[in-house]
């Protein structure tokens, strides 16, 4: 893939979005940063550029709020850092998220972008010609001139033409119909660490036109271990990253591993136990309809609760007893107002259980999250591939909460 080095001519002070830096960043690394794009910059007509500019402005607004939130220690005991839950066992284990080197690098990359917007913009595009990311359609598109201008295949067309499982098709049709209601409204709320709203309520073009991927809906061997309601009721969009709108390979000669975007998971679903060799974070953006509606599970790969049953030079197969007597205590509730931030180290086994029984109209509701992975540039470690766990008793089938689960963990290379 050909890379393009972007020349620099503007100072960060020229940007209205230029931001003060957290103490742990060096101003010299931020000012006049040099960007290497993934692929050639796209040349747009004047008519197209108007809409690209609208999308770019909302992207910068989104990224700035994200960086501020991660480095906001006002509501925690942390210095220049929000606090994150990283393991739900043993009563829950937390840390200052900016203690992690990968998080510091991701925040640095974001500040390099927002403080050098004209230079970084050369790596940005609407990505309207990418045939595997989609437009949710419906009210989101009606409220977004950008999504109306740049035509993508809609969710409706996707589920009709690219999904063969009838149950998944049906669920996907409901998901599509209600997607706008899921990501907007009073139930969607920013965690306190955020300086302002970056949800679809405030950034309608970004949420409508980012390009969404229902990553589990199409047939694959992996989905033998998945649940149909997740396959048809889950999607994510990437804003900054190798698959997103802002595609940067290097900044100042250093590889960029950040992938930043958002996820939507329907209620009444269990996102199955899974893992990946790339670190990941979530900010919950939903007000729960009842106590303990949104519950998360996470156990690190070196936990004494995780037992190795087989290994080779690339993978380690492990088991975890999800049916143990105190297993239910390992699922911890979270929301926009309670333990909103989750961090999963590489190979952490995690899952999300979303109750819909307390929703008046569960088909219209979902858990909405700001999402990121931080070291996706390391292609040796599976480039972020999500590996679904399975039932240890019935391998190849989904793992439920009341049985022994089995997962294949990547052996990390450094």
Brief write-up:
This protein is of the alpha+beta class and 414 residues long. It has helices spanning 27-30, 46-70, 101-114, 117-120, 138-142, 145-149, 155-161, 166-183, 204-209, 228-232, and strands at residues 3-5, 35-38, 83-87, 93-96, 212-213, 234-240, 248-251, 254-255, 259-266, 269-275, 280-284, 294-299, 307-311, 315-321, 332-333, 341-344, 349-354, 366-373, 387-388, 390-391, 404-410.
Report on this structure:
The protein is of the alpha+beta class and about 425 residues long. The protein is about 20% helix and about 25% strand. It has ten helices and 21 strands. The strands form five sheets. The protein has a six-stranded antiparallel beta sheet. Strands 15-12-17-10-19 form a five-stranded antiparallel beta sheet, with no helix packed on it. α2 (about 45-70) runs antiparallel to α3 (about 100-115) and α7 (about 155-160) runs antiparallel to α8.
Topology at a glance:
Layout: E1 3-5, H1 27-30, E2 35-38, H2 46-70, E3 83-87, E4 93-96, H3 101-114, H4 117-120, H5 138-142, H6 145-149, H7 155-161, H8 166-183, H9 204-209, E5 212-213, H10 228-232, E6 234-240, E7 248-251, E8 254-255, E9 259-266, E10 269-275, E11 280-284, E12 294-299, E13 307-311, E14 315-321, E15 332-333, E16 341-344, E17 349-354, E18 366-373, E19 387-388, E20 390-391, E21 404-410
Helix pairs in contact: 2-3, 7-8
């Amino acid at each position: 893939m050909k890379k393009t080095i972007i020349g620099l001519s503007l100072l960060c002070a020229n940007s209205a979005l230029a931001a003060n830096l957290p103490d742990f960043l060096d101003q010299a690394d931020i000012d006049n940063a040099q960007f290497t794009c993934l692929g050639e910059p796209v040349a747009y007509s004047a008519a197209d550029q108007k809409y690209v500019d609208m999308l770019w402005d909302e992207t910068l607004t989104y990224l700035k709020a994200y960086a501020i939130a991660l480095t906001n220690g006002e509501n925690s005991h942390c210095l220049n850092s929000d606090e994150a839950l990283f393991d739900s066992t043993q009563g829950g284990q937390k840390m200052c998220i900016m203690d992690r080197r990968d998080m510091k690098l991701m925040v640095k990359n974001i500040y390099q972008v927002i403080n050098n917007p004209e230079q970084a913009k050369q790596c940005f595009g609407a990505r309207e010609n990418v045939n595997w990311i989609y437009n949710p359609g419906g009210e989101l598109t009606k409220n977004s001139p950008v999504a109306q201008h740049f035509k993508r295949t809609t969710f409706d067309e996707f589920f009709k033409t690219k999904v063969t499982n009838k149950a998944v098709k049906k669920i996907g049709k409901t998901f599509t119909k209600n997607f706008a209601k899921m990501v907007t409204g009073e139930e969607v709320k920013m965690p306190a660490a955020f300086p302002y709203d970056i949800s679809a309520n405030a950034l309608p073009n970004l949420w409508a036109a980012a390009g969404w991927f229902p990553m589990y809906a199409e047939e694959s061997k992996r989905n033998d271990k998945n649940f149909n309601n997740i396959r048809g009721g889950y999607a994510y969009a990437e804003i900054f990253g190798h698959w997103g709108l802002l595609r940067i390979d290097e900044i100042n000669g250093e590889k960029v591993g950040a992938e930043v975007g958002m996820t939507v998971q329907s209620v009444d679903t269990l996102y199955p136990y899974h893992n990946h060799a790339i670190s990941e974070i979530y900010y919950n953006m939903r007000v729960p309809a009842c106590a303990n509606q949104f519950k998360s599970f996470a156990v690190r790969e070196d936990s004494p609760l995780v037992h190795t049953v087989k290994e080779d030079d690339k993978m380690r197969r492990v088991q975890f007893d999800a049916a143990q007597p105190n297993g239910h205590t390992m699922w911890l509730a979270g929301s926009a107002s309670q333990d909103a931030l989750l961090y999963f180290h590489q190979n952490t086994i995690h899952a999300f259980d979303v109750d819909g029984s307390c929703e008046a109209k569960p088909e219209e509701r979902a858990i909405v999250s700001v999402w990121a992975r931080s070291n996706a540039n390391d292609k040796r470690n599976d480039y972020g591939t999500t590996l679904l766990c399975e039932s240890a008793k019935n391998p190849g089938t989904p793992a439920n909460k009341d049985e022994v689960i089995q997962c294949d963990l990547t052996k990390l290379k450094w």
